[in-house]
Amino acid sequence: MKLKTILLIVLAVLVCVIILQNTQVVEYSFFFWKFTISRILVIPIFILIGIVIGYVLSMHKSKKKADAS
Question: Computed from CA positions of residues 47, 42, 27, 34, in that sequence, does the dihedral angle turn out positive or negative?
């Protein structure tokens, strides 16, 4: 197996362990709204948002590099 594959598997396992250990219900305030939601849902949502933002920024950066050439 390649190192990158092994690291991705280890990272996925760690994320799963963290998610499964955080099952408490928490309250979030967003402007005037209050949400009561389980951390088991919040953590993957924010991980997914982070992945999407990273992907969009990397695509934007590579597009700028291609336009400059």
Answer: positive
pLDDT tens-digit series, residues 18-58: 878 888 888 988 888 998 988 888 888 888 999 999 999 98
Residue 18 contacts by C-beta under 8 Å, 6 or more apart in sequence?
43
Residue 31 backbone phi and psi in degrees, to 5: 55, -110
Report the distance separating Cα 50 and Cα 48, nearest Å.
Answer: 5
Q: Which residues of 51-61 are buried (b: 16+ CB within 10 A; e: fewer)?
A: eeeeeeeeeee
Encoded tokens for 64: 């700028």
